[in-house]
Each structure stands twice: as C-alpha cells, then as structure tokens.
Amino acid sequence: MASNTPIVTGISPKEGPPGTRVTLRGENFGQTASDLISVIICGCDCTLSAEWKSPNKIVARSGPDKGKGDIIVQTRYGGVGTSTVQFRAYHETIGPTKESAVWVEEAPFHALSWSRKSLSPTSYQQEDPLGLSVEGNENKLPEDDLNELFPNGSGDLASENFNAGWFLLEHHHATNFDDLKAGLSFLKRKVDSQKEGQLSFLKSNVGSVIDQLDMLAKLKEKIEHDNSGGVNLTENVELKIQDSKEEAHKLFEEVLARRERADATRNALAVLSRFKFLFCLPSVIDKNVQAGDFDLVINDYARVKNLFGNKDIPIFKKVMAEIETRINRVREILLKKLEDVPPSVEDHIKVIRSLNHLETEGDPAWTGIECYARHLVTTMNDLKDKFIILESSENTKKNKSMSKMNYSDIQGLRPPRILYVENLIDLMEHKFPDLWKLGQTYFGRELHLTPDTGKHKPYKHIVMDVIERFCNLLRAAILPHTLPRSNQNRHAYGTWSNSGLESVILWLPHCLGYIRACYSSLLRIDLPSDALDIFSKFIFDLRFYRVSTRFRAAAESIEALDKSETWAIDINEKYGGITELPFQFEAKFREVIQAIHDSVLLGEVRETLLLEDPNTKKEMSALILQLFRSFASVLEKLAFSNADDQCERLTVISQLIYSSDMNKFANFESISWEQRLLAVMCNCHYTCEVVLPSLVKLMTSQGYQITEEFTTNCKEPFVMLSHRILEQYNEQKCDPLVGTIEPSMYIPKFDWDTTFQPTDIRPYAKEIIMNLIGVRSELYRVPLNLVEKIMFKIVDTIAEELARLMSCVKVFSLAGSMQARADILAIKQSTKAFTSKKAARFYEESLESLPKVDEQGEELVRKIVAHFASNMSLQLTSLT
Questions:
Q1: Nearest-angstrom CA–CA distance, 558 and 569
Q2: Domain of life here (predicted)?
Q3: 8 A C-beta contact, residue 845 and residue 803
C-alpha cells in the first residue's frame, strides 16, 4: 500500500482567491477517475470540482478558506496521500473598477474625512496615511515572508485584517526612523483636525440650532393647548407646511436651478474626462495627419472601434460618425499617395498596409500593384519623349562629326540615344524588382490579408507587359529593324531619327554590357520563364546585330585593302609570287572572329548560343562568306583596274614580253599589268589553299560548324576570279604573239615556192620560240600548275595558227617544203613540254599540209633541227 500512496509534488498556480483553477501534479492519483475519492486544498474539500486527467494530473478549484495549507489527495487503493508543496488562499479586495463574478456590496468608501464621498473614481486609491513618499521603496519584501510574520494579516487599509506592521514593512521598509516619527505626527494632526470638525460645525451654527429647538417646543405647547379645546389642527398644519414648502421653493428655485446646471456641467465634465480619448480623437486625427503620422491614426482608430464601435449611446454614435468622416479623408489621402507611388517599395507596402488596417473598400494591395506598374510605364514613356526631343534638338553638324569618330574618341561624349538606353535600363533595374516584390508580398500573404487567387493571371500579364514594353522601347532606339511593322503600338515605342543609328553602332558593346547587367539582376529575383524569354530574345537579337555590324565593318575594312597594296611580291616555291594582301585579310578575319567569340558568340547565363539557332547560323554563314567575297572583289579590282589603258599601250611584241630582273621583290612603279594579273592569281590560289583552311580550322575550334558546301562557296569567288585572270592573261599574251607570226613569216617577201636550199630555221620560228621563252620567264612567280595552264593555252593557239597558215599556202617547192617542215619540227620540239593533244593534232595537220620530201630531204631537215637545238640549248631549257 505504501508504494501506491498519492503524493502531490507540484501545483500551478501556487496561490489565488477562492475558485482558482489549480493544476495538481504528482504520482499515484489512480488509474481511472473512479479511483479518486477526495481532494482537499487548505483544509477545504474540493472533490466536487476535481477533474481526474491522468495518474499524474488532477485539476480542481480552490475553496473559500484563507491561508496556506497542504493539498491532500485520497484514492481508493493508495489511501490518504501527502504533499510536498502548499497552496496559499487569499480573499481579494474588490474595488469599484474590478470585475467580479459575485455580487459585492458597494458600500461607499469613506476616507478619513467626515462622510465626504468623492465623485472621482480615483478617490478609491488612498494616499499614504503618513504623508511620506514611497519612491525609494521599489524593492518590496516578498509576500510569503510577510505571511509568515503576520498570519492572516493584510497591508490593505480597507481590509478587516489590516496590520500596521505589515503595512510599514510593505511600504516603508527602507524609510528611516526619523521620517516614520514625522509621519506619525502628521497622522495625529490629521485625526485631531477631523475630530474638531464636528464641534466647530455646531459652534458656528449654535444660534440656529437653539432657535429650531425653541420653535419645536412652542409648537408642541400650542398643539397641546389647541387639542384641549377639541379643535383638529392637523389639516391646517398640513396646509401651512405645504405653503411653506412652496414659498421655500420660490425662494431657492433659482439657486436650485443653478445647482442642477452645475451638477449637469459637472457630470458632463466627468464624462468628458472619463472618455477624453473618444471626444478628442477627431482633432488628434487631424493633427497626426498633418504630421504624416498615419500609424498613430491607425492605432487610435482600431482602439476606438474596439471600445465604442458597438455602443448605442447617441453621443458616442455622433462622435464615431465624425471619426469615420476623418478616417474616410485619411483613406483618400493614402489612396492618393498610393497613386503617386512613394519613393521606395517599403513605403508603398506601408501605405497598402495602412489602407488595409483602415478597412478600405476594395483591394488596396492590388490597386497598389497596378499603380506601381502604371507609374513605371509612364516613367519609361517620359524618358523616351525627353531623349527624342533632346536628340532632335542637337546640332546636325555636331552629330555628323560625332558619327565619324571612333569608339575611343567618344567614350566621354555619349549620344542622347545612348544616355536614354542607360537611364531606361537603370530605371528597370531599380524599379522592376520592386514591382515583383509587391506581387510576391501580395500573393505570399505578407500584407496580412487573403489575396485574390484570381489575380494571378492579371499580375502575370502586368509583368509580361512591362518587360515587353521595356524591350520594345530599347528595340525602337537601337534595333528598330527588329520591331514588327505590323505592330499597332509601334509608334508608342518612339520614332528615332535614322541618322543617330551610326553612333549607336559604335556604342553597341557598351549597351550590351548595360543590358546584360540588368538581365542578371532580373535573374536573381526568380522571374517566370516566359518573362525571361522576352528579355533573352532581345539580348539574342542585340548580340546578333552586334555580330552583323562587326562583320559589315570588317567587310568594309577588307574592301579598302586595295589602298594598302604595295605589290611587294614574296616568291613562294609552292604558291608562287604573293603579296601581303592575303596575310592582311587573314589577320582582319581572325581579329573579327576572335572579338565576336569573346564578346557575344558564346553568351552568358541563360543566353542562347547564336550558333544554336538555325536562322542565325545561316545568316552568320552568309556574313562570313561576304568577307571572302569582299576580299575577292578587292583582288578583282586590283587585277582589272586600268586594264583598257594597259591593252592600248601593249600593241607590239616587245611590249608583251617583260624582261624580268629575277628580283624577289618588285614595287608598284616597275610592275607591269601582266605581272599584276599573275600576282593576283597567285593571291587567289594562296587564299584558297592556305588562308581558307587556316580560317576554317579557327572557326571550327570556336564552335562554327563548317560544311563542305560552305568551304566550296568560300572558294568559288577566288576560283572564278583566277579563271577569269587566266583567260585575260592568255588573251593578252596570245593575240599579239599569234598576230606577229604571219607578218614575220613573209618578211622580206618570202615565198614558199623558193629554190633556195634551207640551212637553218627561219626567223619567225625563232621569234615564236623566244616569245614563248619570254612568257615562261614572266611566269616564274606563278605556281607550276598555273604555268602549265597558261603555256598549254598559248602553245595550242600557236599550233592552231601554224596549221592555218600552212593550209593556206598554195604552192610549196621542195626547198620550201623542207624549210616549213624544219620550222614546224623545231617549234614542236621546243614546246613539247607544253604540247597538249590539241596542239599535237594541229602540228600534225601542219606537217600533213606540206608536200612529201625524199630521204635526203628528211636528213637535211633533221640536221637543221638538231643544229638549232644545239645552238639554242641554253634558251630551250626554260621551256622544259
């Protein structure tokens, strides 16, 4: 049994008045509620109010007893228990302002003054009877210690158990003895003065009191005398008394009226004093509004609504109506501030919260979002109009001179359009995150209101509209060609002058950096993908425009390379004589490709690679191809400039044959047009065979997907130009050379029907061979494959001309036939290295046109040809 004895080890609270809900904690309180027999708190049975919660917890209400005592729990199996804690019960002093669950006799509180009841509720708070200050006695003695010293005592002056010792220790434990003696003297004087008050009242009114007593005595004698006569004077007395009353009222009517008015005024002042907060609130609201302190207005409004909102008293309703009028005016002021948009989003949110606290109709938070977005769009449009006017007002000459400067010259002279781009981006970068924060605050319930879920779609539309407008405003300024012409709002994005676009091109890297910084800031606030895609598309277009302008500038720079040509020819064993132009072209190409790769090709965070878009890839291929075509046009210009003048001057063979000095380098003044043609042809060949593969390798390493078709397209202009130069060169060489064969053949008045025996080949044949040697010497700067093309073409033409001339001879003598055969065989043998099937056929036709000779004649022909070959062996080595 001892092990099941209930024990109370903790209570909460530890003290309280009767009826306090006390929670008991301990052990062995029974397994069920039926095991609990009784609960005794401070000697009072509280079983009826006890609630069994668990074997370790019971809740009960304290009884009416006072003082400290144990808490004893008795159970069916554990018997009477014990307690390690105590509960202190006390009776509260119920004042006039304290709520009470029971009826309290509200006997008027009598202070030490004689039967004088105070009208003010604060009179129940007594002053210190000793007249001493208690400011230095903040640290009071614990009440438990006072209970031990004065059991069942109290320090309350109004309590029946008032104990002076308790009072002194509670309020004056730190007061020195001299002050306590002075307080005692003060108390004695006050009591004596109150006792003297009744005597002084009687002394000052003793005459009236005696007269009243005498009158009552006389009245008594008179009545007794009249009664002896048998006459009833009661009725007369009553009438007289009534008359006296009426006369007294007449005498004091004015005084009583003034008294009633004074009481009414006093009561009104008491009401005003008691409800000062309510009656003064309208003027307080006005003052706080003027001071801009809307938080105080909101707090006061909430307080007055809580205290007087449901009161039916007419005066309260009238004041509340006046307060509502003031609050409506405050709502209008705050709504106006909401439309004007405060300088910071925090102030904007504060205004929205103030409107919510003031129970404004509608949805102030959503109104704030719409106002903020509208303000942002309006500010964008104002910037656009401002800078369009600024650009149009600038001096035209100044704009032209600025457009001719390079980027490094105008870094400190930003055009108005660039300033507009910077200001617009700064506005977006600083204000748009605030708009997004407003929406997140609204839908995230941070404004202490229930958001309208149906506003998600309109809010997304607002965000998308702001971003789209921002991007289109930028497009109108720096990328006007990317705005759809069918867009009905195109004019709303601004109409900028075309003349300012030239300066914009120079500032594109600067603009791209600004826009990317803004884009990065928007990425940090976690915008939806749809909104970011609009911005990303604009950056993509700007990057491609930067690429296209850079390529076009490079093309213009390449097209001006003809001005830097010095015709300093470098002889390359494999590719012939080339100038510096292919190297300059390759350097410019590499420069632009590397610059584009470093700045815009790869892209940054969440930017699409330019080469991933099929259309962009196709256009970039066209731009790169244009660079090659531009260089081909430069070579074409160098090859065929002043070609007509050169053809007019080159009318004789001596002008056709150039005596080479075999120098490795030649300058422009000493180079002939034919040499220029050959140099350009070599440049074409070198560009196709060396420069193009090198550049293709560079582009491949930087992500370009180079196809065979693209490489072929890049080679095509150079191949066509080389073919054209080859034809022009052959024409320039063949026509004069072939044109001299017939005149030379019949000088001086030679006839094939001759009788002179031939001893050597004729001069025209030697001239043909020397002209070929001269042409071959001029081709020492040309690659071997090009040399063969040129020489084969010239030999074909010569062979064809010889066949024609031989077929036109009417009569050949035997000597003439041997001479012609020797000439043709000498030319054929000399040109065998460059004799094609076509030329061989023409040679055979020439020989077949000649009459047959005998063996002696054939032997003579062989000797003549051998003698010629021996004498001309040194010269003929150039044709091998």
A1: 19
A2: Eukaryota
A3: yes
Radius of gyration of the chain (CA): 62
Most confident of 129-133, 144-148, 464-468, 781-785: 464-468
End-to-end CA distance of the chain: 137
Helix axes 294-308, 276-291, angle to 10 degrees: 160
- Say if CB 24 and CB 56 are below 8 A apart: no
- The share of the chain scoring above pLDDT 70, in percent, equals 82
Q: Which long-range contacts (CB under 8 A, 24 or more apart) does 91-97 make?
A: 91/17, 91/18, 91/66, 92/17, 93/156, 93/158, 93/159, 95/124, 96/121, 96/124, 97/121, 97/124
Nearest residue to 479 via CA among 532, 538, 395: 538
In this model, does residue 170 exceed pLDDT 90? Answer: no
Q: Exposed, middle or buried by CB within 10 Å (0-12, 13-18, 19+), for 34?
A: exposed
Over residues 143-158, the mean pLDDT reads 73
Rounded to whole angstroms, the Cα distance separating 532 from 644 reads: 61
* Spatial contact of 348 and 366, defined as CB atoms under 8 Å apart: no
Q: Which residues contact 782 (CB under 8 A, 6 or more apart)?
A: 576, 577, 678, 681, 682, 790
Of 81, 70, 71, the C-alpha closest to 35 is 81
Q: In terms of Cα–Cα distance, which of 394, 372, 358 is closest to 441?
A: 372
Locate all alpha helices (DSSP H) within 740-872, ordered by sequence. Answer: 741-745, 763-778, 784-808, 814-830, 837-848, 855-871
Q: Which of 435, 587, 382, 404 is nearest to 506 (CA)?
A: 404
pLDDT of residue 133: 66
Return the closest-CA partner of residue 323 out of 374, 284, 287.
284
Q: How far apart are CA 297 and CA 299, in angstroms?
A: 6
The domains of the chain are located at: 2-89, 142-175, 274-340, 376-527, 556-724, 740-879
Question: Between 458 and 778, where is the model more confident?
Answer: 458
CATH architecture label of 2-89: Sandwich (2.60)
**Residues 413-456 pLDDT 10s:** 778 888 888 899 999 888 888 888 888 887 876 666 677 777 78
The 10s digit of each residue's pLDDT in 831-873 is: 888 888 888 898 888 888 888 888 888 888 889 888 888 888 7
* Nearest residue to 832 via CA among 783, 773, 880: 880
For position 116, what pLDDT does the model report? 39
Q: What is the pLDDT of residue 660?
A: 38
* Token pair for 571: 């002889």
Provide CB contacts within 8 A for 267, sequence distance 6+: none
pLDDT tens for 647-677 read: 444 443 433 333 333 333 334 345 777 778 8
Helix axes 345-357, 294-308, angle to 10 degrees: 20
Least confident of 21-25, 581-585, 754-758: 754-758
Separation between Cα atoms, residue 636 and residue 687, nearest integer Å: 14
Cβ atoms of 822 and 758 closer than 8 Å: yes
Torsions phi, psi for 18 (to 5 deg) = -60, 140
Identify whether the C-beta of residue 471 lies closer than 8 Å to the C-beta of residue 538: yes
User: Given CA atoms 768, 769, 775, 778 in this order, what sign does their dihedral have?
Assistant: negative
Please compute the mean of the pLDDT values over residues 226-231 and round it to a whole number: 58
- Do residues 528 and 606 touch, judged by C-beta distance below 8 A? no
| 755 Cβ neighbours under 8 A, 6+ residues apart | 813, 815
Look at residue 148 and tell me whether its pLDDT is greater than 80.
no
- What's the mean per-residue pLDDT of the chain? 78
d(CA 736, CA 730): 10
